[in-house]
Amino acid sequence: MDGPVQGRRKACVVGAGVTGLVAACSLARSGYDVTVLESELHPGGMLSTFRIGWEDLERIPYVIDVSDRDLLKLFMDLGLDAQIEWFRPNASLYLDGSHHRIDRAGDLLSIRPLAWTSRLLAAFRSVSRRRPPFLCSEALRAMVAPRSASEPVEIPGEWLASCPPGVDSGSRRDRSAGYPAGGFSILVRALLKEIESLGGEVRCGCTVTDIRPQPVGFRLDCILEDCTSYGLETDTVVATVSGRRFAEMTVGAGLDESYLERLRSIRYQGHLCLALRLKQSLSSYHRTFVPAAAPFRLVTEHSNLVGLRRYGGHILYLSRDIDTADPLWTQSDGEVFRLFFRGLTEMHPELLRSDVKDWRLTRTRYACPPRSLFDRQAAFAPEAGYPGLFLAGIARTLPEEHSIDRSVRAGLAVAARVRSDPRRRIEGASPAPGLHKSEVT
Ligand SMILES: Cc1cc2nc3c(=O)[nH]c(=O)nc-3n(C[C@H](O)[C@H](O)[C@H](O)COP(=O)(O)OP(=O)(O)OC[C@H]3O[C@@H](n4cnc5c(N)ncnc54)[C@H](O)[C@@H]3O)c2cc1C
Question: Which of 74, 270, 329, 384 reaches 20 to 30 Å from 1, CA-CA?
């Protein structure tokens, strides 16, 4: 059992995803004695990687957008900005057996399976919002919705309001996608190194099961990988897990029941992502949006964007959001692979099983909270109704929202709240040096 350290405020961060690591780093820089507890064996959360060939590869494909200001500042702050390489992504829509390029507004005009009105409206929207069409996911969802073969696809009006404005940076990087040399693992490693160099600790394979207030501070009960238990006492807790998990952990904490009920009522979507190492590329596109009839929704040919690097093959991801009540969610990895591979061969009949060198399936249980969550911030208010206990979990909203950036902001904002908590302020502590302050939007 580790008890609070005399003289230094102790903060425990639950979850070593981007939000947790950024919060931990910021608190460690302000003089807190920080412990991060992570249930997985490796840190990074959704951004964690696996080794393939001589490279680290994300379990889910990521890119940095030029508008990801807080993420880019974080790279700079950690001295990693020179590692970001910028590429020009391209995308297609796979409709009626062929790829339709959707990089520019004009491309939309020539997609014959789309209704004329939709082509014009979508093109107008893309121009007026200075956003390439493939960043308007609502539009794409509508385009690939199931329909009878003869029926032209109509884009419903809602997406016209939802496409976010583009970045008018005027720079050559505008509309580019960034990817770090060495992958996103360099960011995770740099955050870990910084936390540890400031005396903090990141414990992986440690699942927090219970958070209970004590007369002073909190006690956290955990289960370790070898099924033994571990307890820790701390002054402040920052949980960066899903709302549902947080509600489970704090059952005995005496939190406001209506607040917990709101967290429990959030219905998350899961995400399935199959990473394949192939002998060759299948198209010239980075991303291809696929009709709803296919078992996956998105094909990401990662190597078409960043090159072959030292992966030892061509990297391609097949992915989709999924309701966890869907029987596919509980199918074996082999079944999901077979289903996805069959769908891919329908798009590319030349593809053979022997062209797949290896594959890996990732299931993310709490990948996508409903979009409306972020319109109703109260559901994720950082103070969990108990002094010293904070919730800063955030997952993806919509692809175009580039939410690692949001996660960085959430981590910084929750650390700022911990520091400014009048009951828990550290006498004489300096504001977090280097890490910039920002508010959650
Ligand atoms: C399909 C998909 C594509 C995306 N693409 C992009 C993109 O291109 N660009 C972009 O900017 N963003 C993208 N995002 C968003 C980005 O992945 C997330 O915003 C970010 O990684 C979330 O970080 P987080 O720390 O909030 O959550 P997580 O990464 O989920 O971290 C939470 C951590 O808490 C741990 N945990 C949970 N329960 C416990 C427990 N009981 N005890 C201890 N630890 C626990 C988990 O294991 C996890 O490591 C994408 C997300 C998805 C799902």
Answer: 384
